[in-house]
Amino acid sequence: MAEFGAHLTSTGGDNQPSIFEVLAQENLMSSLRPAVKYACRILAEKKPDKLGWLYAYCDETYTVLDFIIQSYYLKTYSASFAENFYGMKRESVEKVKAKIATNLPKQKQYLSVLYLVIVPYVKMKFDQLFEKLRQQVADGFHSSKTLMSRLCRLFVCVYPYVHMTWEGTMLTYQLMYMFGKQPWHTPFIQLAGVQLKNLTEEDLNNQNSEGTSSHVQPTSWIQWLMYIANKLLGGVAISLSTGLSVGVFFLQFLEWWYASDRSTMASVTSLPIPDPPQKIDDSSISSKSNVCPLCNKVRTNDTALSVSGFVFCYVCIYKFVKQHNCCPITSYPARTEHLVKLYSAGS
Fold it and tell me: Between residues 108 and 220, which one has the greater pLDDT?
């Protein structure tokens, strides 16, 4: 059994990383996004007037930072940040076949950035859109026969199969890579026209010599502007990458701290009861317990607003909170996240 699985951890004669190494470098970047999002949320809560946009556009902020870092690492080390962190590099398929060790060509760098940064961002946005539309379709928001409603229902029906094809393709590539049937562990590595290789001692020496070598001084003002811009972008990329390198070692600590903070947080029942609202207009509230205070009809899809405790129809309270950002009865500030669906015992 050990002999059968020995090839899974060996790099082989072609200096190819093992399946565990390539999966580790992929998991590294996937674990950094929640950490960055958590940091953005903490900053936004500290100064919501100045840094509130940081959490609202957290995905875009992470994508821009990721674009800068990956572009710098691909240009300097011929590898992404995570690949370089785990001692790997990217080589052009043509150079691998010719057994020539050179830096990654510009075209391969652009394709690598596209598949490392842009494609995951687009896929994440499609996932978020699917979850949003699926909830809206289930609540009856797109039941009309308009073109937009039909497109939304079609997207909700088709996208799960697209996602299944995506995940199935990824799994197939990883299995074929693990058993040595092909040199690519994802289709994007193949589409970029590169292969992953382990760094050799010669590669490390070349990186050190390139870092200490002197550059040609610019002569014209245009070259000076380009030189300064490259230096600034390089400095930003180095700062970000250094911060990420250090942050990786503290990532598990942050996750532990966050989990510990949540587990030791006082329960809602232990908090003091808030003061009642100064004035409640109860003239529109029906005495019947199954009537919605907004539409004055028998409730459908019962939903409670957690900030006040009143129960409404889901569609009624969702539209009201979305427009007014408060409870219609108590005027307490509220958001759609405060809506809690209620289910009967037989459902």
Answer: 108
Beta carbons within 10 angstroms of residue 71's beta carbon: 19
Q: Which residue has the higher pLDDT, 85 or 128?
A: 128
Handedness of CA 97, 103, 106, 112 (dihedral sign): positive
Instruction: Report how far residue 265's alpha carbon sits from residue 257's, in angstroms, rounded to the nearest whole number.
Output: 12
**What would the pLDDT profile of 263-301 be if each residue is shown by its tens digit?**
444 444 444 555 655 555 555 555 567 889 888 888 888
The token duo for 232 is: 């600034």
Q: CB under 8 Å to 341, separation ≥6 — which residues?
A: 301, 302, 303, 314
CB 76 within 8 A of CB 44: no
CA distance 293 to 244: 51
Answer whether residue 31 shows pLDDT above 80: no
Q: What is the pLDDT of residue 114?
A: 93
pTM: 0.62
Report the chain's mean pLDDT, rounded to a whole number: 77
Are 11 and 197 contacting, i.e. CB atoms less than 8 angstroms apart?
A: no
pLDDT at 177: 92
Task: Using alpha carbons, list the distances in angstroms from residue 319 to 74, 249, 323.
Answer: 47, 45, 6
CB distance 199 to 87 below 8 Å: yes
Chain centroid to CA 12: 33
Q: Which residue is listed with tokens 């200096």?
A: 15
